[in-house]
Every structure is written in C-alpha cells, then in structure tokens.
Amino acid sequence: MKLNIPKKTTLALALSLISSTSFGAEYLNLSTTLEQAIQNDPQWAATRHGYKANKENIHLASAGLKPTAQVKGSIARNASDSDPSARSLLSPSDDNYNSSSIGASISQPLFRLDRWHSYQEGKANDKRFDAAFNADQQAFYLRVVKAYLDVLRAEENQQFRDAEKSAIKRQLEQTEQRFNVGLIANTDVQEAQAAFDISSVQHIIAEQDLALTLQNLETLTGSPMESVAPLKANAPISPPQPTDVKQWTKSALTTNPELIAAGHAKDAALAVYKSKRSSHLPTLDLIGTYSDGHTTNNSSPGSNESSGISINLEIPLYTGGTTSAKRRQAKQLQFQAEDNYNLKKREIIRNTSNLYRVVNTDVSRVLAQKQSIRSAQAALEATEAGYDAGTRTIVDVLSAQQALYGAKRDYANARYDYIFDLLQLKQTAGTLDAEDITEINSWLATK
Question: Where are the alpha helices (DSSP H) in 233-321?
Fold first, then answer.
C-alpha cells in the first residue's frame, strides 16, 4: 500500500502565501490551509513520529531469528601466596602476576518455532501500522476541513447577524418616525427596540464565535488569519457518485483502513497464540566460541587458547504453569481480535449506508433551503406591504425578517453539512485523499 507521507512545503505553497498576504491579513484557501497544517500541526506531527517509531518493530521482530555475536575481554592483576598464614600488608607476596583474556561467541537459532511466529506477528503488525497511519491521515484531512468549514459557518453567521441587525435598526428608526407623527402606538416602538437589542446580543455572540473558530484554525496552521476563502454561490451540490449504495459498501469493506488494520490485528493475535503454543517445544541453537588467555607469572608464564562449536538443545519441562497460562491467554486475545474485526466490519457497513443517505438528504436539504429563502423573501415583502396598509403589526414584520435571515443561515449550513458529510462518506469508504481536498478547494472563491 502506498502511503501519502507529507512532504516539505513546496515553492508553490510559498508563492501562494505571498499572494495571500498581499491583501493585508492572510486570506487562505483550503489547500493552503492543509499544507500549513501538515507543516505546523503538533497533533499530526506526533502521529507521523509515532508511525515511524512503530515501523521499527518489524526489525525487532526479525532479530530473534538472526545470529547474535559478542566479544568479551578482561585484564587483571593477580596476587598469590604459597603460605596464606604468612600473608601480611608489610610483607607483600612476591608471586604477583598479570593476566588477560579475550573471548568471542556467536549463536544462531536453528529451531525456535516461537520466534518464527513472533516474526509473523511483527509482519502483521507492520501492515497494521500502515493501515492505521492511512486512517489517521484521512482523519487529519477531515479535521482540517471541519476547522475550515467552522470558520466559514461563523463568518456567514456573523454577516447574517450584521445584516439582520442593520435591517432591524432601520425598522426601529422608521417605527420611531411613525410614532413621532402619531401614526402608530408606542407599543410598536418598544417591540422594535426589543428586537434590536436581541439582535445586538446575537451579533456580539456571532463575532465571538468567529474569533474562536479562527483561533482553532490558527492552532492547526500555526499562522494567524482574519479571513478564509468563501464557498462559491454556484458550488456543485449533487448526489454522491456512484449512486448505488452497494458499491460504496463494497469499497468500504475493501479499502477502509480501519477495517484493514483490524484484519491485520487479527492476524497478529493468531501469530501470538501460535508463538505461545510453540513455547512447549524444544529449541535448538548453533553456538560457536573462541577464547585466548595470557599470564605473566614469573614462575610459569603461558597462554591458553581454545575454540569450539556446539549444538545446544533445550527441552522445557515445567515452568510453574506460566507457559500454559500464556497460551490460554493468547487464545482468548485471538478471539477478542476476531470479535473486534467483526464489530468493525458491521460498524463500517452501517456507517456507509447511513452516510450515503445523509449526503442524499443534504442535497435535498440544500435545494429546499434555497427555495425557502425565496419564500421567506416574498413573505417579508408581503408583510411589509401589509404593515404599510395597517393590516399587519410590527411584530409580524420583525418575525418575517428573522425568518428570512434564519433561512439564509440554514441554507449556508446545509451546504457546509453537505461538503463535510460527503468527505465523511469517502473516509468511511477508505478513498479520501488530498485530491478530494483539492476538488473542494476549487469550489471556493478567490479574492
């Protein structure tokens, strides 16, 4: 499986950053945001380093099948006395001598079935780490997209709150003018004033929400910003392709990285069980040794050199029940891994089906919310005409205005929900990659 391990920031990214800052505050699009997050997000950096650390486990797993070699040496000053009773600090021995030795040994496993299965466990885990990293990468993409969309939601909400506040303010001013000339009662003025006060509070909350979402995005990118590229008015909103949910489910069962990781975890657990079961078997090692020792004793200097090759056989008989307990424990852990795999499989089937329906519902929602804006606009115009004619009250007008801006907010949120849910569907199917982010980026307006 090919992994999309992030690379360093490219020249194109640097040029895009220069271009984005030419307007004063940074104005980032989604692709540039992703590039900056790849370089600066600590959580993603920790994920990458953890993955690289885990990739070393395959080398640790294979070490048990390879030879081991060591060299040892020593130098000593020795003292001896032929008459121990005459030993004294004032009469040191005249039979002191130096000695030195050097030795080497090498051992090659010939038959260690437990280590062979441990190596198979290592290979299964190595594949599991690859799949898990792929899943983490797709989750990272989705996290960046969510943070970006949260800013867009907050920006549009703040703009709608600002427009709503301005509209209510104009309505308040008109109401006060009518009251001053005696056309309406003071009650209408109080109603308009109350609506304006509420809209002012909501406007402050919207500004705070925007600041928080920008701060969250800064945490990902490491760069402060005041604005991001908005979604085009004509961004495509269409049903997911392919249009058959069975094809999405088939793709998910084949390429979902979490399911693949669970499958490799199951294989690793089986290998662990086989390794523990093999601990009951004999082991056979080929061992080679060499040693060379020298002494400088005045009475009998000399050297001693030896070498040998042997085959070491060990037969485990009884270890207090430890070997059998570990074997039974590994068997239950194997069953657990199989259960986890089956659970993950069912969850993916369920999530794929649900997300497919959600995305199609989002498409219908966007169309319905777009129509609701037209209806709310027509209702507002009719209510204002009725108010001018004296058949409607100021409360009716304010309610119609709130309904219009509420419809606009719902329409904007429906579009953002569609984008996020579509990417979630692709993530569940195991197909989400940087190209999907690039496609969404093409739906954004340029400044």
Answer: 245-255, 257-278
Task: Measure the CA–CA gap between 371 and 377, rounded to whole angstroms.
Answer: 10
d(CA 29, CA 18): 13
The domain locations on the chain are 27-67+115-281+321-441
C-alpha 164 chain-centroid distance: 39
d(CA 405, CA 410): 9
Contacts 24+ apart (CB under 8 A), 369-378: 369/407, 369/410, 369/411, 369/414, 370/411, 372/407, 372/410, 372/411, 373/404, 373/407, 373/408, 373/411, 375/407, 376/400, 376/403, 376/404, 376/406, 376/407, 377/404
Going by their DSSP bridges, the two strands 227-228 and 283-295 should be labelled as unpaired
Q: If the chain, 447 residues long, is cut into consecutive pieces of 10 residues, what is the mean pLDDT of each piece?
A: 39 34 58 94 96 96 94 85 54 68 94 95 96 97 96 93 88 86 84 89 93 93 89 93 94 96 97 94 94 76 85 92 94 97 97 97 96 94 89 87 92 96 96 94 87
Q: Which two tokens mark 65? A: 């099948």
Q: pLDDT, tens digit, for every residue of 436-447?
A: 999 999 999 886
CA distance 432 to 143: 12
The dotted CATH code for 27-67+115-281+321-441 is 1.20.1600.10
Burial environment of residue 177 by CB neighbours within 10 A (0 to 12, 13 to 18, 19 or more): exposed
Query: How distant, in Å, are the alpha carbons of 189, 200, 381, 417 from that of 384?
Result: 16, 22, 5, 33
- Residue 237's alpha-carbon distances to 153, 315, 435, in angstroms, are 17, 69, 18
Residue 171's closest CA among 187, 200, 195?
Answer: 195
- DSSP helix/strand/coil, 96: coil
Token pair, residue 395, equals: 């409360």
Percentage of the chain modeled with pLDDT above 70:
89
What single letter denotes the amino acid at residue 234? N
Burial letters for 306-338: b for 16+ Cβ neighbours within 10 Å, e otherwise?
A: eeeeeeeeeeeeeeeeebeebbeebbebbeebb
Looking at this protein, which amino acid is placed at residue 352?
A: T
Q: State the Cα–Cα distance between residues 11 and 323, nearest whole angstrom.
A: 59
Bridge partners (DSSP) of residue 228 are 28
Is 70 within 8 Å of 266 (Cβ atoms)? no
| List of residues 6+ apart from 98 with CB closer than 8 A | 75, 76, 77, 78, 295, 296
